[in-house]
Task: inverse folding
């Protein structure tokens, strides 16, 4: 934050102004239209007063000639005013619609480029809130606030000026309820402390997170009965929010009720007529001059109340704008400057003195040095939490190393455009994530332009084509909606996805973990066919599948502790040998392991 | 709409009713008070000071009464809002917790999230900021129009005709926007769902974003929300125009009618009456304009209410009227059939099997053969379409959900971890567990090794869904959670729970320790597990294909033999050979 403030003038502006900057001209025009329009809409009230005066003072007989003219002017102003107001509001809505889609896309674009670690420290509910709810809240501001503000100001201004012009003494007294309203309202508003407001906003985002958690955790809630604390988290968030809401609004209820009661049309009318009668009684004005006050003054109530209510929208929108702006300011994963990106020569991958740490408990790796020769198979093994997956994620540039560098074909990953990078490196990770879309779209995720034949060919190689064809809607089956796939099947879809991308380098992370026997055979035959001839990095948990790897890297607590072929590592009788024994593979030890023991 | 609101408020409904009655009386009272202004103005214009004084006193009394009533209305309105934010949100939570797990598709969960956060906030604002002005704004003109009749018959008639006309236009314009509004809400929910997916599946989306394919779903949703938003803007502008212009047209008609009365032969009292009538005309149209301005807010809230209602009217799993207790720890399925959706082939059909107390049954079969569904049915994630699931000789629909969950401990693939520490997550299994109990379960599940490595040990915070732990670590915490529960029946999905070597060990340790002491149903993955079982059921296409002891089945040339061969093939496979 402190850095942001130091940067430039543009950055120092309030988040609302920064976000709305692109549509400021359109909004200004909309406000002018609404203000002028609303003022015109009120002209007929003055018209009525004029008619009444003409009839009562000059006598109906003399005045009847002028009356139609006054009516015509009044009605013309009414129609013109309404047309202007409508135009202004339409303009503001269209500006909002234009801005909204750009902001949402800007958020998606920004978040697609932040380090992936960001997503493990921010709840998905927060992302949804920014992209959907917060921007919808901004709509209140862009589409409604400014024009409504303009209308209120237009109505109040013309009314006050008109009444002052007729009789300033009565105007001041008749309009007394409005300053009173502001006194009470202002005092109440000052009682909202910054802290209470923060509490309230925090309560809102707590609810959002608790809902995601509560809904996702339902299976667990059910498994452990209603007594589990899972449900409680949700209750706590709801209760907490209600308390924050009460503390936020509690002290305001009575003063606001008083303030609102003071400016209801009926109160204002009573004020006007009471002072009007007094003035007539004192002979200060004529009875017919009280009429404009009775007509116009109560009409100020609506706009005035609306102005008070508008404050809510601004407060809400400011919170929302802050959240959106802070997401838009999230630091990016460094990208090569346009034109300076380099194309990798070949597919050799080198880790050079790589270190990476962030606040997550597991993601600490350091002193990582190794090379993946083109066309070779390298396996990384080690106990859970040793940092194996972090290596895979660094290679996929989910985040950048703190120290050292990773090169592909001699070029630092940071110098390669991400599209280039992902064309060369494909992966199947432990969290198989299928998108809520058809199976065909899921397989074609990396190449949306791929033909159906290409998709089917990839599915065949991944041993999933027949299963897909057995579904009633085949490749058009929507995942999770039309059919449920087992873990093994989802994995084969993920493999088909990688196959279709056809990258020279492939990263497999726990690729065969979630499979049952039938699937596992299918998955493994799919992978071994696909893997041949490529540079392969396997993050392995089952040691028996990687005994033939060209090289096995053994990791423990974020460091490389052993490197070698299966037999060498067994002979070393260190970490790898321990893992091998723990896995219970001893009985089925491959011949190579037994024969090639070296002293 | 009111019905849905009352359903949502349920026990709090009287609070709402009282509030509406108060708002109605307020509208009537302020209408009457405004009407009192007419004779006052008349007296003034005629120069009748005494009459003016009398009517002024009446007017002032009315205003004070209005003030007092208005304050109470406002306070009552806030009370309704609070009931929605608190009670109704909890009610939705309680209701949702009773729905079958099958209901929680990604579409439904996204909508639910939207409703509880955004929707409830919108509904809660309704009484305080919308209903009060709306109700009083609708009632006041009714009183005013009667007064208008007294003053001037033709103007009263115009006012009276306006009211049904206005209602007609309001209804028409609401219809006009409704379809577009529903479409907009649906596309907004789609965007919400895509945004959550975007965050949760970010790693995959990013790596497969070569041609922009990764973000195109979210961007597509945003685009379609943009388009439906545009449509909605035009339509709602049109409906606002209709609403406002019909009222202003009525106002213009009233003014013209009044002006036409002011012909050359009209007497002074008549002029006074016309002038007073014009004042009433203004007081008639003004509140109605306010009502028209609230149309959009009402429409938005009605959509939210409809969504809430859809959730609240969803049938929960039934609770027994006369709950029975299971007699022992046996599990039995009698001719059970189940499908996730109507019109689709059943996932499980005609399955019968029995697991004796203290024995272990291994379920095997290809993926999609119905093993997981079967296991979930024992835990009553859904009810059977036909047949019975019995525990301890009692149909599980006759066992209270509390008793049922006390009977069963699960180690499944849905190993969602809650925000909180590792210890908190294990303690979910048995809320009263001591630290020693937790440590013991953790050790058996291999979680102690994870805790040792982390800076805060068991107090390490795991993040949403356990995001700060690796997949294997999450599973082990879930295993510990299942273990600490220590219930007579244990359900294990080994295929997905045993992610890595350590987990396999943890599962194997668990199974061999509890074997003979608990009734165990396991979806088996490891050969060693299968061989440990007292009985094996081989599933195929939702049916039981083979049943028997491991020895019996091995002797038979059936699916089980095929399974064994396949396991051997998998073992024989090598990457990089």
Result:
């Amino acid at each position: 934050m402190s850095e942001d403030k130091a940067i430039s003038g543009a950055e120092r502006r309030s988040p609302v102004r920064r976000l709305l900057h692109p549509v400021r001209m359109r909004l200004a025009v909309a406000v002018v239209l609404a203000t002028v329009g609303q003022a015109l809409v009120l002209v007929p009230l003055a018209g009525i007063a004029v008619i009444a005066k003409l009839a009562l003072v000059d006598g109906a007989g003399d005045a009847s000639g002028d009356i139609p003219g006054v009516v015509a002017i009044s009605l013309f102003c009414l129609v013109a005013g309404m047309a202007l107001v409508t135009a202004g509001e339409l303009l503001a809505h269209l500006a909002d619609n234009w801005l909204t889609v750009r902001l949402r896309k800007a958020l998606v674009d920004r978040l697609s480029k932040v380090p992936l670690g960001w997503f493990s420290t921010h709840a998905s509910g927060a992302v949804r809130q920014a992209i959907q709810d917060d921007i919808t809240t901004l709509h209140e501001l862009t589409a409604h606030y400014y024009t409504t503000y303009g209308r209120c100001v237009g109505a109040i201004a013309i009314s006050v000026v008109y009444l002052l012009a007729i009789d300033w003494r009565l105007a001041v007294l008749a309009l007394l309820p409005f300053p009173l309203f502001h006194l009470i309202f202002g005092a109440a508003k000052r009682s909202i402390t910054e802290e209470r407001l923060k509490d309230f906003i925090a309560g809102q985002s707590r609810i959002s997170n608790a809902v995601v958690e509560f809904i996702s955790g339902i299976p667990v809630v059910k498994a452990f009965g209603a007594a589990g604390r899972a449900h409680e988290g949700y209750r706590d968030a709801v209760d907490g929010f209600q308390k924050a809401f009460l503390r936020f609004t509690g002290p305001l209820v009575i003063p606001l009720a008083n303030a609102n009661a003071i400016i209801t049309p009926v109160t204002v009318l009573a004020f006007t007529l009471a002072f009007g009668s007094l003035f007539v009684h004192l002979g200060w004005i004529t009875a017919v001059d009280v009429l404009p006050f009775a007509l116009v003054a109560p009409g100020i109530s609506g706009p005035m109340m609306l102005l008070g209510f508008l404050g809510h929208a601004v407060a809400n929108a400011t919170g929302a704008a802050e959240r959106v702006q802070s997401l838009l300011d999230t630091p990016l994963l460094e990208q090569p400057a346009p034109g300076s990106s380099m194309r990798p020569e070949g597919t050799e991958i080198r880790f050079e003195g790589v270190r990476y740490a962030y606040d997550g408990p597991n993601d600490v790796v350091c002193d990582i040095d190794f090379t993946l020769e083109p066309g070779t198979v390298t396996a990384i093994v080690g106990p859970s939490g040793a940092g194996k997956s972090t290596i895979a994620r660094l290679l996929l540039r989910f985040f950048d190393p703190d120290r050292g560098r990773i090169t592909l074909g001699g070029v630092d990953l940071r110098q390669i455009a991400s599209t280039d990078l992902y064309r060369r490196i494909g992966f199947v990770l432990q969290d198989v994530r299928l998108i809520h879309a058809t199976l065909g779209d899921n397989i074609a995720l990396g190449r949306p332009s791929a033909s159906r034949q290409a998709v089917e060919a990839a599915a065949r190689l991944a041993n999933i084509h027949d299963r897909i064809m057995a579904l009633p809607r085949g490749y058009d089956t929507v995942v999770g909606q039309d059919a449920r796939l087992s873990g093994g099947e989802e994995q084969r879809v993920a493999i088909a996805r990688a196959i279709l991308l056809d990258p020279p380098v492939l990263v497999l992370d726990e690729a065969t973990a979630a499979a049952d026997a039938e699937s596992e055979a299918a998955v493994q035959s799919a992978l071994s066919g696909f893997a041949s001839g490529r540079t392969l990095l396997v993050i392995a948990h089952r040691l028996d599948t990687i005994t033939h790897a060209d090289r096995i890297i053994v990791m423990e607590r974020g460091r490389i502790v052993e490197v070698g072929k299966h037999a060498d590592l067994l002979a070393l009788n260190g970490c790898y040998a321990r893992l091998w024994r723990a896995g219970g593979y001893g009985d089925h030890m491959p011949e190579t392991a037994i024969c090639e023991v070296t002293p | 709409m009111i019905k849905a609101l009352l359903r949502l408020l349920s026990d709090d409904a009287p609070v709402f009713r009282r509030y509406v009655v108060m708002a109605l009386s307020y509208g009537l009272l302020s209408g009457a008070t405004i009407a009192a202004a007419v004779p006052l103005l008349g007296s003034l214009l005629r120069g009748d000071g005494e009459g003016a004084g009398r009517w002024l006193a009446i007017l002032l009394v009315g205003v004070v009464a209005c003030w007092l009533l208005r304050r109470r209305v406002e306070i009552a309105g806030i009370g309704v809002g609070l009931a929605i934010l608190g009670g109704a949100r909890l009610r939705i939570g309680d209701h949702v917790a009773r729905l079958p797990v099958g209901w929680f598709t990604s579409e439904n969960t996204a909508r639910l999230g939207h409703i509880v956060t955004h929707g409830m906030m919108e509904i809660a604002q309704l009484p305080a900021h919308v209903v009060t002005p709306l109700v009083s704004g609708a009632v006041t003109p009714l009183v005013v129009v009667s007064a208008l009749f007294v003053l001037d018959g033709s103007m009263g008639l115009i006012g009276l005709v306006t009211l049904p006309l206005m209602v007609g236009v309001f209804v028409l314009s609401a219809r006009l926007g409704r379809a577009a509004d529903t479409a907009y809400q649906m596309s907004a929910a789609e965007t919400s769902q895509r945004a959550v997916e975007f965050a949760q599946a970010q790693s995959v989306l990013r790596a497969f974003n070569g041609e922009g394919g990764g973000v195109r779903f979210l961007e597509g949703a945003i685009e379609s929300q943009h388009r439906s938003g545009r449509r909605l803007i035009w339509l709602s502008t049109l409906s606002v125009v209709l609403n406002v212009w019909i009222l202003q047209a009525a106002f213009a008609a009233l003014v013209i009618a009044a002006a036409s009365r002011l012909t050359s032969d009209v007497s002074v009292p008549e002029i006074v009456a016309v002038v007073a009538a014009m004042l009433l005309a203004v007081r008639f149209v003004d509140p109605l304009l306010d009502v028209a301005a609230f149309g959009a807010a009402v429409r938005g809230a009605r959509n939210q209410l409809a969504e809430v209602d859809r959730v609240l009217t969803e049938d929960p799993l039934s609770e027994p009227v006369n709950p029975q207790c299971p007699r022992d720890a046996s599990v039995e399925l009698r001719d059970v059939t189940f499908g996730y959706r109507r019109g689709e082939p059943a996932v499980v059909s005609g399955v019968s099997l029995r697991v004796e107390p203290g024995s272990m049954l291994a379920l095997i079969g290809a993926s999609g053969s119905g093993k997981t569904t079967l296991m979930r049915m024992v835990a009553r994630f859904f009810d059977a379409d036909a047949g019975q699931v019995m525990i301890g000789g009692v149909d599980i629909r006759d066992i209270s959900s509390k008793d049922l969950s006390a009977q069963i401990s699960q180690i499944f693939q849905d190993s969602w971890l809650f925000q909180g520490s590792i210890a908190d997550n294990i303690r979910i299994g048995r809320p009263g567990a001591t630290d020693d109990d937790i440590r013991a379960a953790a050790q058996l599940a291999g979680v102690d090794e994870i805790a040792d490595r982390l800076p805060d040990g068991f107090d390490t915070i795991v993040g949403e869904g356990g995001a700060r732990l690796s997949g294997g670590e999450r599973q082990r915490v879930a295993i510990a959670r299942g273990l600490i529960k220590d219930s007579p029946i244990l359900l294990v999905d080994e295929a997905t729970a045993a992610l890595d070597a350590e987990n396999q060990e943890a599962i194997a340790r668990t199974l061999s320790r509890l074997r003979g002491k608990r009734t165990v149903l396991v979806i088996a993955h490891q050969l060693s597990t299968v061989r440990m079982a007292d009985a094996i059921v081989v599933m195929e296409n939702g049916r039981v294909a083979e049943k028997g002891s491991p020895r019996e089945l091995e002797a038979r040339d059936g699916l089980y033999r095929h399974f064994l061969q396949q396991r051997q093939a998998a073992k024989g496979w090598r990457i990089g050979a």
The longest helix of chain B spans residues 49-97. The radius of gyration of chain B is 35 Å. Chain B has a mean pLDDT of 83. Chain B touches chain A through 186 residues (CB under 8 Å).
